[in-house]
Write a structure and sequence with these properties.
Strand order of the largest sheet of chain B: 2-1-3-4-5
CATH superfamily of the largest domain in chain B: NADH:ubiquinone oxidoreductase-like, 20kDa subunit
Strand content of chain B: 5-15%
CATH class of the largest domain in chain B: Alpha Beta
Distance between the termini of chain A: 52 Å
Strand content of chain A: 15-25%
Number of strands of chain A: 15
Order of helices and strands of chain B: EHHEEHEHHHEHHHHH
Structural class of chain A: alpha+beta
Helix content of chain A: 40-55%
Oligomer: heterodimer
Number of domains of chain B: 2
Strand order of the largest sheet of chain A: 8-7-6-11
CATH class of chain A: Mainly Alpha
Order of helices and strands of chain A: EEEHHHHHHEEHEEEHEEEHHHEEEHHHE
Number of helices of chain A: 14
Largest interface: A-B, 67 and 63 residues
Radius of gyration of chain A: 21 Å
Shape of chain A: globular
Number of domains of chain A: 1
CATH topology of the largest domain in chain B: Rossmann fold
Chain lengths: ~425, ~250
Amino acid sequence: MTTIRVEHLARIEGHGGITVELDGGSMKRVEFDIFEGVRLLEALVVGRDCEEVAPVLSRICAICSASHVLTSLKATEAALGVQVTPQTESLRELLLRGENIQSHALHFFCLALPDYLGYPGIVALAAERPADVELGLRLKKLGNLIQEIVGGRAVHPVNAVVGGFASLPSTEQLVELRHALDQGRADAEEAVELAASLPSLQLGRSPTAYAAGVAGEGYGYYGIGQAVLLDGTRRTVFAPSEYRRLTNERPVAHSHARYSAFEGKPFMVGALARLAIRGDRLGAPARRALQRLGLELPGENPLDNNKAQLVELVEDVEFALRVVDELLERGLRPEAPRAFRRRAGQGVALTEAPRGLLVHSYAYDEQGRLVSADVVTPTAINAASIEERFRAAIGQLNGCPPEELADRLSIVARAYDPCLSCSVHVLQARHEG
Amino acid sequence: MPRPRVGIFGLTGCAGDQLVLLDCEDELLALAGMLDIRDFLMASSQNDGDSPLEVALVEGCVASRRDEERLRRIRGRARWLVALGACATGGGVPAMDDGNDRARRERLATVYGQTGLSYDSLPPRAVTEVVPVDLSLPGCPVEKQELLALLAHLLQGHPPPPVEWPVCAECRMAENRCLLLDGAPLCCGPLTVGGCQARCPSLGVPCLGCRGPIEDADPGAAVPVFAQNGLPRDAIEARLRLFSARARWEKAE
């Protein structure tokens, strides 16, 4: 019996490991252990006022805190019957683009790139290839600038509230952002060229199903109206309220994330899934990036998710440029958050977070206090898929020494850009009495 | 001067304070040159895990036996142990959990079924409750400028001066209109330790108290004043505990 252990996976967000037990040719155990501490935030937020829910659930995760805040607000507003303005929807979409740029730049340059170039991390990489690291940091800073200007803070944005935004960006801030986006456009193209020059890595290659949320129009992340599961050529469509029919989660002993599967099969969410399902909605520059990187869609190589993020970087920068130009031309309408009355109700919201499909589902009582919360995060959905890819990789790397196998499996897990703080927050909390 | 050996660690939490460090895009490479970063699992697959450290930055709360063991090992290695952010300094939002282990086990069972009862899970505690801490930087997350100032001070061999004024003072300095006087049901600025330059009230968002209570906060006196704006007492107290249930709020009640 050979045991392969990765005690504490590096260069990811949160705490997890890998356990593999091989007996001759057979895989006895293949586990992605998520031992991130259990915080039970969704249980603790029960009984809280509707305006306290987004600030608390933002703390599920820092890297995708804007997604948690906006998905939470969207679910709360659906439950309380609050209709936000088109300007608010447009600014919320811009905020999520900023988050996506920040998150993808962090993951691609700081966490994944060292795998392709053979470095332990960004500090070692910066010592020998400073230009690559500076490029990544500029893009990350651009994403954070959007988050600061629209969200009021890069981590745990405070400016988005029930009904809209507390404050609106100033013209000076939008002009500053416009200049940064010009540089961002050039930087995103350079990032694509860098990715195109990297050695090809194929690990854990296997057919998989994908799922992604689809917006009314365009390549949006906020206004998601339905989820689509793509298995081969078959597409299954789910309304937001049907999300449990898609995820079918169940708890498992070795992981603090609950596992998802549709018709018994795990599926992948994230940038690569979005390209597979709604890549036809990309603008021309992102389509060129897609071609330059030669991604097969729907593909079988999980590592392509790293490069798929760069296609989205191009798309998101272009979108942000369009929105900021429009805002500068038209001017922002001064508007306060919509007034609302506390009442009983239920609401489900779907969005696309950087790592994939995110669901917040709430029920409120007549005083506007939270009665129950259910949150399904992309990394929780991906956990089962990651194990499936581990199995494929182990089969393909037959005879590989244990230490090298551990490294290879870490690269597979990292390609999913797992966010383990998020993953342990798939849960359903219900207030008794 | 040899570069100080530094470790950056995350216990249970959202990794937001480590992210603030990575968000120092303009300073990160210079910092990496000035510090000998030995442990930073979030950013590197090469970690020391053993050698003595001049500075250990620790974020997150202690919510498992594994967290507690890691923290004690880090404490043993570090000359300066810095608790970073709301979870490390005051328990943060996970500590809204009241420490009642039975209630916690019920919640675990609600969420994960019987499987949950086998998890390595403890009631969340602040880092400051588990080991002696040399310095605390509050906030959810910490402010970038405060984090950089703290590192600059430690590079000079001494701790930064403490912040002894509330968010309210910074809000006045920024010449904001007072949200409480304008009728906001509650703003925690008068009781919350400053240093954020009144980030939220400056946007028109009432302070939620993410930086925890100032040294001489007197909630017993403040709650009746807050209550004049119409919010029930228990809702005010629940808000004050949102980010720092394990801090000193309760002492004054």
